[in-house]
Amino acid sequence: MLGNRYSRTDLFALVPQLDLRFEPQLEQLDRLLDDDELFDRVRDDLARRHPKTRSRGRPSTPVEVILRMLVVMRLYGWSYAQAEYFVNDSLVLRQFCRAYLEKVPDDTALIRWASTIGPETLQALNDRVVQLARGLKVTRGRKLRVDTTAVETDIHFPTDSGLPGDGVRVVSRLLRRAKAALGEAAAGLGEAFRSRVRTVRTLSQQLHRLARRKGDQGRAAMKAAYGRLIATARRTGAQGKRVLKALRGRADEPATRRLAARLEEVLPRLSQGIRQAERRVLEGESVPAGEKLLSLFEPHTQVIPRFKAGKAVEFGRKLRLDEVEGGLISGYAILERGGGQDQPHLPDSLANHRRQFGRPPDLLAGDRGLESAENERLAREAGVRHVALPHVGKAPPGRRAEERGRRFKRAYRFRAGIEGRIHVLRRDYGLKRCRYRGERGFGRWAGWGILAHNLAKVADAGASR
After folding, report:
1. How far is CA 59 from CA 7, 56, 95, 223, in A?
2. Which helix (H) or strand (E) is 15 found in, with range?
3. Nearest C-alpha neighbor of 189 from the set 257, 263, 241
4. For residue 187, how far is the Cα from the chain centroid?
5. How confident is the model over 340-395, as pLDDT tens digits?
6. Which pTM does this prediction carry?
7. Element housing 416 (H / E)
8. Stretch 211-228: mean pLDDT, rounded?
9. Is 219 within 8 Å of 183 (Cβ atoms)?
10. pLDDT mean over 67-84
11. Of 3, 119, 229, 272, which has the fewest beta carbons less than 10 angstroms from its beta carbon?
């Protein structure tokens, strides 16, 4: 049964000789997290874990403890295991997380509860924090700066041999489990459970050695080795389809049903990886970035051109960030396309700002990736008084004079601050690399990072007064 909170206990009063107290930031965060709307939204998501979570079962870890531990975890950059250890070890953190003298939830319990809080809820929580910041006069929404950044997914560097190799390894592991789950029925499938992992490993090592060879002979040897790798992966895929058919025949058993669902998920990706390797290596065809599968485990990963020294591209997702004065991220969105310009996303930023603050910003600033005549027109029509988007290409004389003026330069210096904000988010709040799985996991990872950042900014502003 889902509980709300433990009975209140003042741990500081129990040991007055230690003179324990919250540091200023935690003191302000403690007040912010007492907000009923934040609590109710998290509770609604946690209640979806099972149909009768609200009313049946043993008493669970209270909602208040879960919310505060997840915030603390992202605030300090801890793992789930570290969050459990440090909260359990500290009277101050026990008081802040409202765990008091009760048992602190272990890392596996935290993982299960955290996975029930969806990215949509985290968007709503961030909106609520922005409203609280408005009420506390941390921001008034007069200035808006917009930019995008890349957040990497947790994958190894994609290669043409890596996808078929990963596919064979994962399918072989599932086949081994399926053999145990099918029991006597597995005897009729013969060679369908054969593992080809060792063959793929040998071929992958051979490809690494052949990659050093130059000339036509080296290229021919590479193609021949890739042909054998693809044939091996294709045979493993055929084995997987035979076993999947047998598993579907026993769909009434939970174990076989789970294995069938996993094979249904992996086999199409293996087929796509095989076809991709054929097109690129054997046929010499260039595969468009939008059609590429970069990871068997994170299929939503995209190629993001960065044009930076030492890192021409990144593999992950692109994130749009809207920042207002006061250092708050008032809005964010995971973009559908990793490449291309950012101009199509500016109208969404303006619409989100009007929804949050009830009016357009007085100042809108962005880099050249956001500049277009259409965007400037939209901003003017929306009521933005001053638009600081530098002209792309050769500017007409009037525009050059405007961009050399003091007002434009001051606005563009304000824009530069979002680069520092992105650096802080990547360094301190985990937006350099996503550690959660799947597209929804990516949304949860980005949402928790931005929420923890905004809570810290509001708390710091309150502590400095």
Report:
1. 14, 9, 20, 60
2. none
3. 241
4. 43
5. 788 999 999 999 999 999 999 999 999 999 999 999 999 999 999 999 999 988 88
6. 0.93
7. helix 406-428
8. 90
9. no
10. 97
11. 3
